[in-house]
């Protein structure tokens, strides 16, 4: 449990804010976005950690609830919002570089990102409530 407490700042705020509204797969991408490769989480490990925190009363049982169906695909806006949230001063071009490094495809399926696409996703994330000004 002590090791879990040491890493809690990496994942607890995201889980509190995004679950159960967002699927575990998407929460995992957001949690892992700012982390170095050595500290990345797997979905099963994150879920076990959340269950332990719920059991010990640190998190609400609601975070374990089933995620509802998405009306629109909010995965890319969520990822971009997480990157921007982790580094508020990051430029659109730097977000492009990070998305390409993560091998995320653009909404049209391409591999190279343009700042205008990132700007559009940030605006969508704002409308979805994933990003605060």
Outline of the structure:
This is Recombinase. The chain is mainly alpha-helical. It has six helices and no strands.
Distance between the termini: 35 Å
Mean pLDDT: 89
Count the E strands: 0
Shape: globular
Strand content: under 5%
Kindly provide the radius of gyration, computed on alpha-carbon positions and rounded to a whole number of angstroms.
Answer: 15 Å
Organism: Salipiger marinus
Protein name: Recombinase
Structural notes for this entry:
Helices cover 56% and strands 0% of the residues. The protein starts with a helix and ends in a 5-residue tail after the last helix. It is mainly α and 133 residues long. The chain folds into two domains: 63 residues; 54 residues, no CATH class. Helix 1 crosses helix 2, helix 4 crosses helix 6 and helix 5 crosses helix 6.
Could you list some keywords that capture this structure?
133 residues, mainly alpha, 6 helices, Recombinase
List the helices and strands and how they pair.
Layout: H1 2-18, H2 24-32, H3 43-55, H4 75-86, H5 92-101, H6 115-128
């Amino acid at each position: 449990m002590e090791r879990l407490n040491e890493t809690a700042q990496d994942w607890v705020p995201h889980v509190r804010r995004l679950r159960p509204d967002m699927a575990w797969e998407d929460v995992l991408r957001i949690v892992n976005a700012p982390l170095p490769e050595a500290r990345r989480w797997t979905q099963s490990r994150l879920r076990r950690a959340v269950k332990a925190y719920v059991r010990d009363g640190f998190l609400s049982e609601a975070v374990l609830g089933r995620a509802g169906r998405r009306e629109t695909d909010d995965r890319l806006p969520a990822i971009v919002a997480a990157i921007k949230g982790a580094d508020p001063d990051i430029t659109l071009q730097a977000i492009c570089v990070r998305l390409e490094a993560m091998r995320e495809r653009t909404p049209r399926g391409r591999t190279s990102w343009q700042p205008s696409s990132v700007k559009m996703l940030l605006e969508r994330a704002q409308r979805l409530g994933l990003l605060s000004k």
